[in-house]
Amino acid sequence: LKMSCFWLYLPLHLLAVACLCHSIKAPTTSSQQNFKADLFNFYHSLLLADGKETTVHLLKDIPKRYYFVLEEGRALAPFTITVTPCDVPVEWSVLVHKASASFLGKGAQGAHNTQEVSKSQKAPSMVSTIFNFKGNSVETYMGMSPHSALYVLEFLSTERDTHITVYLTTDTTSGHLFPELPSDPRLDVIGIGHTTVTLTWKHSPSVLQHRENIQYCLLVNEKHNYKSLCAAETAIRSSGMKLSPTLALSLSPYLLEPQQVMILSNSELSIISKASSGEVRQICMGTKNTYTVPNLSSSTQYYFDVFVVNLLTNASAAYTGTFARTLDEPEPKVMELKDGKVIQVVLDGKNQKFSTLQYQARHKKIQFAFQLCRGQVQVHITKNSRTVVSENISGLKYFSLKGKFLDTYLVQLRSTEESNSSVKVQVSPPFYKPSFPLLPDSLKIKSFSKLRTCNSVTIAWLGTQEESKYCVYRKKIEEEQVWTELQSVDRCSGPESRHKSEKVLCKYFFDVNLQRAVTTETIKGLDLGTLYLFDVYLFGPSGIPVRYHSKVVKTRKKC
């Protein structure tokens, strides 16, 4: 018998010595070669940190090895190894040096893809494989050794370059790095709508124990489910999106990529990432275990994955994902138009939905009138399924059309902006008196700087050849309110919503000669150095108002 002692040196000038002393027979030539190969593998291994998650980058077909040592003081203490593939399936093995002949261990998720060595099993090699797994799911190996031992983890990717995360711990009493999953980790779909899906899942035991440090994050996409958080992030990055390092999103500031939009509402943090391959939503909702995903597209299949995340370590565990298809879009409601009746239509700019109106002609000649109230609107008119009008409108627009008795006209309206738009619509035969007032060439209000004083402002606006009523209103505003006031104007709204104190005057005027159809007003009693918003409302014969473009004027500070 000979006593042999082998010394292993690590890179980075960290001297780690594993003195493996054995009472063995003098090795034969064959066993010597195996023995040297074992030493070579150990020598070219990296030390795996205990109690810390390690990211391992793998090159295709090139194995990578890490080792760790169980010392005498750790004998009989359990240890766990958790490996999380972040892309393609990988093969990984746990090897133990024969110094630990009575090793006993097991796979945490059953014995499939597992090779274990019993106490009585003997092999000519100095190193034995005690666990082996291949796949892209998260797998945990749990083991226990009654003796000090040297272990090697070997990782291999045969498909392409990839990366994985590895977590080793020999201290199972200080809590878990990874949040725990419930005994039934499935997601349940409890409600499906045209644009919503409602999910529920059982609470993680970690949430019940450490509520302040744990939260749930939901991933929604149209491709497939993901078995781990890093697998999801890797796939999304490869599709052209750039994501934040983890879904464990704290409220501390960080920079979003240009393709990302962050929404914080009702203690829920959402990130929407857009790329050519589709949209991915990340939603972190605290510790709620029921959630309704809003603003989905109809008739679309979505995949849902929930991760329970440790906010202190960013480690996560994945529930078993699910999928659901939203309901088909309901047939759009068609509103009937009647001769001479004015209706107002509000258009959803975010979802870009059409509003459809129908009119059956009672006369050969008809006239459509559209008054734009807010935003930008596209009008599309068909007669007996043939397009007769298709254009964007501004202000007040008339379309005179000829056809046959009982021709069917369909009017489709759509907002061309992301914000909501609105428009008033009227259809009537030519002999109907128009409900909308005759408009001047311009709806702009002009102010005269030279006539501006500390307490008065002079404004002017165009009129028409038709006698009409004009009402002037004023309102004090601050500098920071100017943009909001001008952008939020509804040109179809009348002065009924204005405060009585804002009314300045009402007057009637017209002129047959359009060159002289101009009127001016000097508004007095103003405060010096103050911003005012001036509005003029024009009322036609039917009483429908048209609002001129608002004008902001500031009185002089010194006179």
Descriptive notes:
This protein has 559 residues and is mostly beta strands. It has 4 helices and 39 strands. Strands 15, 16, 17, 18, 20, 21 and 22 form a 7-stranded antiparallel beta sheet that branches. Strand 20 (301-310) and strand 21 (316-318) form a beta hairpin.
Give the topology.
Blueprint: E1 2-4, E2 22-24, H1 29-43, E3 46-47, E4 52-58, E5 64-70, E6 78-85, E7 90-97, E8 104-107, E9 127-135, E10 139-144, E11 149-156, E12 162-169, E13 187-192, E14 197-201, H2 205-209, E15 214-221, H3 229-238, E16 260-265, E17 268-275, E18 278-284, E19 290-293, E20 301-310, E21 316-318, E22 322-325, E23 334-336, E24 343-347, E25 355-360, E26 365-374, E27 377-383, E28 386-393, E29 396-402, E30 408-415, E31 421-428, E32 446-447, E33 457-462, E34 468-476, H4 482-487, E35 503-509, E36 518-523, E37 531-539, E38 545-547, E39 551-554
Parallel strand pairs: 3-5, 23-25
Antiparallel strand pairs: 1-2, 4-12, 5-11, 6-10, 6-12, 7-9, 7-11, 8-10, 13-14, 14-19, 15-18, 15-20, 16-17, 17-18, 20-21, 20-22, 24-31, 25-30, 26-29, 26-31, 27-28, 27-30, 32-33, 33-36, 34-35, 34-37, 37-38, 37-39
